[in-house]
Design a protein that fits this description.
The structure holds two protein chains of two kinds.
Chain A: H1 3-31, H2 37-52, H3 64-82, H4 90-108
Chain B: H1 2-10, H2 14-27, H3 33-63, H4 68-83, H5 92-114, H6 121-139
Helix pairs in contact in B: 3-4, 3-5, 5-6
Classes of the chains: A mainly alpha, B mainly alpha.
Chain lengths: 111, 148
């Protein structure tokens, strides 16, 4: 895979993670934090836009999915800290570091 | 007017009330840690199926030139995907961080089953380490286990 493809892939994955977590959070606010239906509908719209992003991915992005998982795990914890004001606890940080080690093994070990 | 607002805030009508009742009903069955484990892992897997399925329907619309109905169905499935984590008895960030790991493993399984791309040794080792990591994130016993 070319470097440019990897760059585009990673950018799209960051965008996808933002839309996916943001959309999920809006639905969460609707059902768990008892906010209005508007939040639920906005969330559903955001998730639909999220669904469009992968269609822009370069054709063969195989193991980049592992990278997406890593981005997603870290983004979720950052989202929690900044939007939800819940700082990750010790086990969340340890677990995330272990999971990232797994991601690196999958993604970076030359085959 | 003020009274009406208070009234509508106290009473959730329709789909929302239905979902909240369903959630209370399902969660009340997750009494022991063991049962909760089954309940939560099933929810993670269900979310993965809905996310990959919904994304696939939208893919069919945009990349394979299928009818607009596929896009609508995809959007509905993705909306349901967004509802599933609200049934998890935990915090938003913890659920989503865990789901990130489940998603990697499920997309590898998906690729293996449907695209015939067999994972190699390092994929499997990496996937197992990811599962250990996200299990610690979600299932490590804490003092603050009383959610919300």
């Amino acid at each position: 895979m070319h470097m440019i493809d990897i760059g585009i892939s990673l950018f799209l994955f960051f965008l996808a993670a933002l839309l996916e977590i943001g959309g999920g959070y809006l639905v969460w606010l609707w059902l768990r934090e008892n906010k209005g239906l508007t939040y639920g509908l906005l969330g559903s719209l955001t998730l639909a836009v999220y669904g469009i992003i992968p269609t822009f991915q370069p054709a063969h992005f195989g193991r980049v999915y592992a990278a997406y998982g890593g981005i997603f795990i870290v983004s979720s914890l950052i989202w929690g800290a900044f939007v939800d004001k819940k700082r990750p606890d010790k086990y969340e940080i340890i677990g995330a570091l272990i999971a990232l080690a797994g991601v690196f093994i999958m993604f970076y070990i030359p085959r | 007017m003020v009274k009406m607002n208070q009234f509508s805030r106290q009473n959730n009508f329709g789909i929302k009330q239905y979902l909240i009742n369903l959630k209370i009903n399902l969660e009340s069955r997750c009494l022991s840690r063991e049962r909760c484990w089954v309940y939560t892992i099933l929810l993670f897997i269900l979310a993965g199926i809905f996310e990959i399925g919904g994304g696939y329907l939208i893919w069919l619309w945009l990349r394979e030139g299928r009818e607009l109905i596929f896009a609508f169905l995809g959007a509905i499935v993705l909306f349901l995907y967004g509802i599933i984590p609200t049934f998890q008895p935990s915090y938003f960030h913890r659920i989503y961080a865990t789901y990130g790991g489940i998603f990697v493993v499920m997309s590898i399984l998906w690729g293996w089953l449907f695209d015939k791309t067999q994972p190699d040794t390092y994929d499997i080792i990496g996937a197992l380490i990811i599962l250990i990591g996200v299990s610690i994130i979600f299932y490590w016993p804490r003092k603050d286990d009383a959610y919300d």
